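Hi support team,

I'm filing this because I wasn't sure whether my run with zinc ion finished correctly. The job status page said complete, but I'd like someone to confirm that the output block is well-formed before I use it downstream. Pasting the exact inputs I used:
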Amino acid sequence: MSPSLLLYFNKCIASRYPIYPLLNEERSPMPLLGAHMSIAGGYYKAVRAAADLGMDCVQIFTKNNNQWKGKPLLDSDIKAFKDAIEETGIQAPCSHDSYLINLASPKDELWEKSTDAMIIELERAEALGLIGVVMHPGSFVESSEEKGLERIVKALNQVIRKTKGFDVEIWLEATAGQGTNLGHRFEHLQYIIENVKDSSRLGVCIDTCHIFAAGYALDTKKQYEKTMDEFDDLVGIDRIKSFHLNDSKKEFGSRVDRHEQIGDGFLGLKPFKHILNDPRFKDLPMYMETPKGETDGVAWDSVNLNKLRKMIKKTKK
Ligand SMILES: [Zn+2]
Ligand SMILES: [Zn+2]
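And here is everything the job wrote out:
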């Protein structure tokens, strides 16, 4: 049995999923679907939980996201995590950076602390074999957009230089633009990518809730295409390395970041349908960050995952 077939087989067992899709000639290539999962009890637990729910990919925090310091990453943690990845066939593991990091900070002390912390995020991600670290670009606080963006570029130059040779990528997250958060205009992402000296490891993570709240329409096919064309013109569609699939509790253009279950918020199902069936994104990992818990005894993650999978159109080869 080929290694990839074996992986798939393991995954089917792990997720109690039927094996037939592999044999189904009509099955189109599809994006990888997963979610942010908790690492409570060990990094490997996130992988196992994702596999148990039938996911293809997983996002984690590599340390407590509200603390600067993290427990040292032990060899045993790394081994258990990598073993779980291999056994379950979970793909495209990524992490999200700490919420404390602000590479746009006008305060030197916080800026330096943030830059150092970002390097540690990447070191931990690299050690675990993750493919990307999703990063909030930062908040300019009492300075200005321009100054904030300059600070981010300066920080990233340092971060990239100090992690030279790493495989793990840095994925700038498109934000909702709450307060003085940067990254809610595609121009911000364009500025950062164009001005960083070595942008070969820089990508973008598009969060559906965020860009909708930031004022980018996704509803009709026409609106969706216009938004993606705008991104393509400014940043380049190839820079999109991943998606966060979240519905929004807040209205279009509200610039407020509140995630809702898929299809239950102001986005509805249509935007997800466009993204899931866009051939440009067919191989990309897409992670949900929707509220956890259960509905009628079923995990919300399962409910959302099913909704998303159902929207993927099957095309004949
Ligand atoms: Zn997100
Ligand atoms: Zn968010």
